[in-house]
Amino acid sequence: MADETEVPMHRRIRPLAVLAATLPLIAAGTLTASDAAVATGDRAPRPENGYTLLFVRHAATDYSPPEEELNAEGIEQAAALAEALHDEPIDAVYTSMMVRAFQTGDDVAADHDLPLIADAGISEVGFDVEAFPEDVNPQLYLYEILTKWLNGVDRDQGFGGESYDEVAARWGEWWASVVAEHRNDRGTGVVVAHGAVLGLMLPATCATPVPAEFALRHPLPNTGIIEARLERNGTLTCLTWDGTPLP
After folding, report:
1. Left (φ > 0), alpha (ψ -120 to 50) or beta: where does 27 sit?
2. Residues near 5 by Cβ (< 8 Å), separated by ≥ 6?
3. 3-state SS string over the chain?
4. Alpha carbon of 99 to those of 102, 148, 230: distances in Å?
5. CB-based contacts of 48, cutoff 8 Å, min separation 6
6. In angstroms, what is the C-alpha Rg of the chain?
C-alpha cells in the first residue's frame, strides 16, 4: 500500500502531521468501557462468506489538532475495544497515520499478535479552521461543509483545507489495495480511522445505501463501529452503523 508502515506492537511513534488541522465529524459523543462492550456485542452474525471489516473511530482525546494522544478516557476505551474484539477472528489491523488512531488500534493488534499497518490514505480530513470566515461558528461552518459534500455539492472545494475530491482520491487508492488483499479471504479486519473521513467515504464506498441525512444524524462516537462485509466481487456491504442496522 502507498505510505504504508508496519508498527511493532506497543511501540508508540509520532507520525507525520499529514494536514494542517483536523476535526472529527461534529457532535460525536464518547463511549465508556461498558458501552463499547455492549456496542460491539450487538453486531450482526458473522456471514459464512465474505471478509468482515470493522471501521472504528479512534478513542477519545482532549483534541488539539492535528495530533493528540489519547486521554485517560480514551485509554480506557481502547482497552475496552480490544476486550470486546478478543474473540473475533482478526487477521489485520489498519490505522491512519495519526497518533490517536495508532494508540486505539494498538491493544487490538497486540491481543491478536499482529502488527499495526498505518496508511496516510485513511488519515483525517484536513480542515484548515484558521481559513474559515471570522464571523462564523467553526463547528456550524464545518457541519455546512460536510452537508454539502455528502449531498454532492462543492466537492472540489477545500474551503481553505483539503477538498472532498482529494480525500476520495487517497481513500480510493487505499481501498483498492484492501480489496485486492482481502476479497478472497475469510476473517476480520479492523480499520481505525476518524469520524469525518469514515462519515464521508463509507457512504460512497458501501453498496448499501447510506443517505446523507443518515450519516449526518449518526456521527460515530469514539470507538464507534461501522460493520461491513467485503464480497468476493469487491463490493462492500455495510451491515450496521454504530449498532443501527442498514437495509
Report:
1. left
2. 15, 97, 117, 118, 119
3. CCCEEEECCCCCCCCCCCCCCECCCCCCCCCCHHHHHHHHHCCCCCCCCCEEEEEEECCCECCCCCCCCECHHHHHHHHHHHHHCCCCCEEEEEECCCHHHHHHHHHHHHHCCCCEEEEHHHCCCECCHHHCCCCCCHHHHHHHHHHHHHCCCCCCCCCCCCCHHHHHHHHHHHHHHHHHHHCCCCEEEEEEECHHHHHHHHHHHECCCCCHHHHHHCCCCCCCEEEEEECCCCCEEEEEECCEECC
4. 5, 29, 27
5. none
6. 17
Dig out the grid coordinates for 204 from the structure: 460512497
d(CA 4, CA 96): 9
- Calculate ∠ Cα 29-158-17, nearest 5°: 65
Q: Which three cell numbers stand for residue 244?
A: 443501527
Which residues contact residue 181 at a Cβ distance below 8 angstroms, ignoring those fewer than 6 apart? none
pTM over 0.90: no
pLDDT 10s per residue in the chain (247 long)?
Answer: 444 544 443 323 323 222 223 333 323 333 333 333 333 444 445 455 789 999 999 999 987 666 689 999 999 999 999 999 999 999 999 999 999 999 999 999 999 999 999 999 999 999 988 889 999 998 999 999 999 999 999 999 999 999 999 999 999 999 999 999 999 999 999 999 999 999 999 999 999 999 999 999 999 999 999 999 999 999 999 999 999 999 7
